[in-house]
Amino acid sequence: MACCAGGGAPVEDMQALAISSLSAADVDKHYEHLRELGKGTYGKVDLMAHRTQGTKMALKFVTKNKTKLKSFLREYSLTASLSCSPFIVTVTDVLFETEDCYVFGQEYAPAGDLFDIIPPQVGLPEEMVKRCMQQLGLALDFMHSKGLVHRDVKPENVLLFDRECRRVKLADFGMTRRAGCRVKRVSGTIPYTAPEVCAAGRSEGFLVTAGLDVWAFGVLVFCMLTGNFPWEAAAPTDAFYEEFRRWQKAGCPAGTYPSQWRRFTDDALRMFRRLLAADPEQRCGVKDVFCFIKYTLLGELRRRASCRAKRGERAGSSGPFVGGGGGGGACAAPPAVYASSSASASSSSAASSSASRSGLRLSEPVAAGPLGPACMKRTVLSDPLSPRDESPSPGRDKTKSQMLMATAIEICV
């Protein structure tokens, strides 16, 4: 499918797309199965090689009893029309169905996804984060220029072609919709969900805007830099979010930063204030963050405290840091921690290391408030009516997929 042009969104009537039918024997005849990359309730992704051409690709199998043909074809056509951007994953011309599944092929990302390399409670080296920010910002800006909103920006949907984040691509367009359309809210929330969606009722739904991606992008940058979520949900019931909102309402006064934001420089806080404005009309465009890439984002105090903490953790842990250098001089990361989906478990597990994660000296007084942020975990679909999100991403290793944990997710139809 040709790339969309002229600033308009690609046509979403997929009835004209031809989808051939293959038996299991036909699939084996044309493709050699190398290994399974990921598996979920609603499908799987296998690494395959074309038997005659030898080219590798990730074949995405979606079970028919979980996904409608229209939804499957929408994702394929949207991905194909956007993949002329070098920062968006490319689909192949492989599109068929078997007796049980719909299948399409897309390029294989050998380094997995972004979630795989973020050290929990530590974060990535700043230079790696900036490389991701620039590439993902260009991908989202390209989508927004076509009138499209991704609506599911998170580390699991960022595919890596190297462990240094020199080449990353945005993937998984199953939730993508046109800007300006109204969609229904189906289930709960995840930390990347914008506050206007958290506040929306099920009956009236909400309007799809580019601001949804801008908010998620801001949360993603926080996660990359810290290895933590800034909050569980952008809602009044979340103490971390409320602390951040009170600071925003007060005009973001210097010297009174929220507990989880003291690690950042003033330039970084200016960027976050623009990305995470509670009013969608006041949020900046994604490409506006490019001017902040030249600044230092993490304060020197936090850097020293973080490295001291990591050296201590390395002494008691055999797990290596897999994120690579990227110019940040990272220390060893702690072993992966997968937090419970309950708020109480998240708070208790974070309390023991809140001082080192906040980037403060132990002698520095800390204002009363939440003990610590929730440790990062994969956001996996829990609503059986909305199967889109549990489809594994191409490039995700099978062993990683076995560590997925269920948590509520905001998903709309």
From TrEMBL:
MF GO annotations: ATP binding; protein serine/threonine kinase activity
Domain Protein kinase: 31-298
SMART domains to which the protein is assigned, alphabetical: S_TKc
PANTHER family the UniProt entry points to: SERINE/THREONINE-PROTEIN KINASE SBK1, SERINE_THREONINE-PROTEIN KINASE SBK1
EC number of the protein: 2.7.11.1
Subcellular location: Cytoplasm
Gene3D superfamilies named among the record's database cross-references: Transferase(Phosphotransferase) domain 1
Reactions mediated catalytically: L-seryl-[protein] + ATP = O-phospho-L-seryl-[protein] + ADP + H(+); L-threonyl-[protein] + ATP = O-phospho-L-threonyl-[protein] + ADP + H(+)
Compositional bias ranges of the Basic and acidic residues kind: 386-400
Region (Disordered): 366-402
PROSITE patterns, alphabetized: PROTEIN_KINASE_DOM, PROTEIN_KINASE_ST
Keywords: ATP-binding, Cytoplasm, Kinase, Nucleotide-binding, Serine/threonine-protein kinase, Transferase
Protein's name according to its UniProt entry: Serine/threonine-protein kinase SBK1
UniProt keyword ATP-binding, yes or no: yes
One cellular component (GO) term of this entry: cytoplasm
EC supergroup of this enzyme: transferase
CDD domains named in the record: STKc_SBK1
One matching Pfam family: Pkinase
Main location: cytoplasm
